[in-house]
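Question (not urgent): is this output format expected?
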Amino acid sequence: MAKMIVDEHFCKGCGLCVDACPKGIVELDKSRITEKGYHPAHCVDQASCIGCCSCALMCPDVAIKVWR
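Got this back:
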């Protein structure tokens, strides 16, 4: 099972990973704000992650790691 991890220190909430996810399981967390003032990305269903790394490849800040 794959696992997507977002380093919130680097995530600026641009949403590119949200658009890149083929499963539609990445969202910006509108209920939280990071210390830099952004809504961080997170995976809403880790069990559905297929480990394609599309989110990590699209991230301009290299804030996402995908473990397979």
